[in-house]
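Below is how a single chain appears once it has passed through the pipeline. First comes the sequence as given, then the structure the pipeline wrote out for it. We keep one example in the README because the format questions we get most often are answered faster by looking than by reading.
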Amino acid sequence: MAAQAGLSAPAPGRRGVLPSFPPVALSAEAVPFTPMSGDSWQPDSSSDAEKQFSRCAAKLRALRADSGQLREELNLLFDQLLSENYNKTFDPSINIQPEDVCSLLKHVSCLVPLSQEHLVIKLCQLSHRLLNQLKVIMDEQTLDVLVNYTASALKVCSSWTHSDVLLALSTAVYGNGPHCHQHLDDLLGDDGVLLQYSSLSQPNMELRRVALTCMANICLRIPGQPPLDDQYRSVCFRVFLKTLQSPKPPNTDELFYCLVIQAALKGLQCCLSGGKWKFGGGEELGSVLAVLKRLMFQGAPGVSVEWPAVLYPAPLPQYEGPAAPKPAEPPKSSEPPKDAAGPGKSSGNKKRKSKGKGKKTKSEESRGDDGEEEDRDTVPAFPRAGGAREGGRGEGEALTKPSASFLYPSWKRNSSDSEFSDPEGNAQSKLRLNHARVRQGALHCLLAVVKAVERRTLYGYWSSFIPDSPIGGLPPLTLLTIVLKDPSPKVRLCALQVLCAMLDGSRQFLAVAEDTASPRTSYTPFSFTLATAIRELHRALSLALLAETSPQTLTQVIKCLAYLVANAPYHRLRPGLLTLLWKQIRPYVRHRDVNVRVSVLTLYGALVTTQAPLPEVQLLLRQPEDSSGGSSSTPQDSALSWRQRDGMSSPPRTPSQRSSRTHSPRVPRTPAEGDGAPMWLLQLCVSLVTQPREDQSDSEGAGGSTALEPPPVRLEALQVLSHLVRGYFSLSQAYLCEIGQVSARCLGETDPSLQLHGAKLLEEFGTGIIQQYRAENNVPESSRVPINQVVQFWSEVLSGPLNGALQNEQHPTLQASACDTLSSILPQAFAQLPDKTQLMCITVLLGLTYIENYLVKTAAVRALGIYVLFPCLREDVMFVADTANTVLAALDDRSTNVRAKAAWSLGNLTDTLIVNMESVGVDFQEEFSDMLLLKMLQAATRAAADKDRVKSNAVRALGNLLHFLRESQMTRSAFQRPLEDAVRALVKTVQSEATMKVRWNACYALGNAFRNPALPLDSAPWSHDAFAALCHVVTSCKNFKVRIKSAAALAVPAHRNCYGDAKRFSCVWHSLATALENSEDTNDFLEYRYSASLRHTLSQALLHLLSFSQSQDMPALGASLDSEEGSGIRQYLIKYLRAEEGAGGGGGEETEGEKDAGGNSCHPQQRIGGLQQTVIRLKGLKAEGEEERSKEVVVLFLEDLLKTCEEA
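Resulting structure:
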């Protein structure tokens, strides 16, 4: 090797710098050796490869094209450079600069003429080696030189050089496709050189493979760089697809063909990665999916079927057929069926491995890492998924029945040692390896397709990759077939990754699945088909869980189950799926591999999160530990109960007991039976977080008898605890002390991640307590956590390490989470905390609002916005003022997040002002600073012009402030202009194109302002604009909730003079009448559900106007009620008075509308009584002429209404 040659023959002059050491006799009395000082002699730290490169590069740079011995010198120097290994994994000390490599390659490209083909080959090999092994990122000039040189060589040099030239070109263009724009036409144009070499007519498989690799490297997108132009990407896509669709040419070696297919798959993956699907419609997508499905089974033993050229999406609803048969139970034994290898059994199947304990040596576990076969010790029977209905139910793959040899797990079929000779066995091994790589590449491509194609489009193809038929009939070839049957753990892992990607985000699609009702006999509903697919996924993944021996693949199986659990609608499925899964995964919490243990906890987190609280999961959580019915060890027997702790482990069992418990699970106990039993899952998580691990089986945990679980396990256990508390608080509340101790333990540790999760667990528990005490949740007092326990809990938390987390400026995320924890204290408990503890909480939060980090500031401002609503704090004028000043400062922050949360807190603060005004009275208003109130009004007005996230709460605050102002303040000159600006800001927001939430908040705010009797609605110049904006919105806005809020606002003023003159009153009336007439006109079904609530609010508003109308209003009212408009109004008013339209129209919106309009009772008798009072009042009005005639029309209209309602 070159390195050895360099040692034996150092460069000239090297010997002169080596120090000479005097000879020393070896004896006991000899002076010990001491190294020389650093300034005496320093060995050269450069590696041999680096020195060789520097020496040869210097010589090459010194050469000129007209040198006499140019060819010989180049040949020698190239050989010396090619003899070195530049891989940093081989020698980490190599430090060759990228600019030196680029400079050398540019210079040498000018020295080697294309006529010297041997030198051209060596230059290409050198270019490939340096760029590939040193991972050089080239500048554009070097890239241009190399691409131009190699492209020219392909045109000029003989064909025997083209393989090396293409290899150099592919290395140069790796990830640089967009930067080669001036050469792309020559490479990928109509007569492009790469298209010629990659065409189906190219007989040389090696040239075809390298050309496809080169195209793949051109399509490869490096993160942060622009993608390749769509024109060239489409050209490459078509080439890759045609290559994959074409059959193997005759007389072509299977191994070479596999290499070509691998290159095409890699290229297709590069085309699909990092963007949306841009390669045509359903036909192209179906073609890609069809070819990928075929290649997913490339080289699979016994698969000999006719594959369709195109997959079509399954029609929805699906098909008519007989009732689905009842699913059979999973096999009870792991023994394979006796006839599983009957017809397809090979001569080498006579010799089988005996079943062992499941333990494998390290070398055995690593088998199959590159796709080789891997033996398994526990193999389930092959899942017989029903039917062969794949892809549009018309695929040809069911035409030929797969042989039984493939139905039997291929990694259990051993060949005898004498079946192949050594060369034949080596060739077979290479072929199996490359077939596995083809399957792996196809699955990688399928994963890219799943990520690139819109989910809604992809759902139509699910049945081609996930079985949706009950057990029975021929087993379809799907992803689950690969998961259960492929001999390569890497291929199984890829199939599981595709399955995870398909399941991720599929909740909306799977939501229609249902099998709780009896199946129909005439046809199979789509909901039942989806439910069957979910059950098939459960069954197959459960079998994979039992059989899998590769820890990496086992981890992915459990992750896939977690995705399934997170997206499937178990409340619409027959119970039992989660029970079986719960029991099956339980032993894996003791698995030796830390990643498996983490994934198991992730799955438990999904189980306690999905549709929580789920009755089936509640039953499982209430079961005592010894009733789970699960085995005490995994099927792989990976770790033997190394967590032997009090309350954590079951008594030792004999193998027969273990077997009987595994195959005969107990029936889950009812809640009543298990009420007194501890929650096993909660105790497990507490133990994983706090207790030391007794068996040091993890390499990262070895080194002491008190080593805790690895951080990933502890963090995931804390996540599960948080999910438990959030979803099943009624069960978790009994563990108040344990959860407090776990959180305190985590907050006291040095790992910020553990501290963060400890704080979040406290926040979840505090939020659960608050939910219990909310009146609308109707939780009986006997079921709540007693208030004294809550006070004690928070007293201990606030006197513990939470203070350290609040002051930990090195970790802002932890500080922010600690602020959220403070905000989750129950208000009633906060009032009973010691005064110094209350003061500490307030002082810390006020101080943290001045921290520069936006996360901390946002959380602190939010917490203050919650505290200001506490009954024990809201009447404290000093605290309210301090909070107001803090919030005002945050409203000017440059971070949108801070400003949004500050606006929300300002809205809460102004809610407090209104509550105090109604409960305390004028005393609080007078005590509150006028100047601070003015600042709040101006700040909220400015915030109303901010982004929608800020604006939605800023307008809420404006409505409260305008409601809170006193008449003495409005008459002051300092308030008059800000008051007008505030109202105009609300009007502008109502009329704007902002989000609907912002607009309905603005309408509500105007109605809130109208409640202030001191507001000069009759004389203020802005009042006309306010009423005009509401009248416009109530008739024209597409969003019915905005219309409801605007109608409620128009019905708020309590006096006739608030509506101004007769013209404005008439405008308001006609707007409400028009809105009532058009209350059913909408093209959006989602809006139609609010139409009844809208009619309710509009009818109430019209009667509100009639209740204080005056004689000058009668002409307009009479004309309206006497016309066709009046007949429509009469129809809706009758329904309102009879209360015929109630909760069916819009839920809580009606109640809110009534409250906004003045709190009139919903009872029909009271509504009719109010109308009677209106009639009596109108009869007593003095009117003359036309006003008198119009008044009679109005009175007759109302009397007719009353008569109709009384008759009913």
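Residues 422-452 form the longest helix (31 residues).

See the next section for the split statistics.
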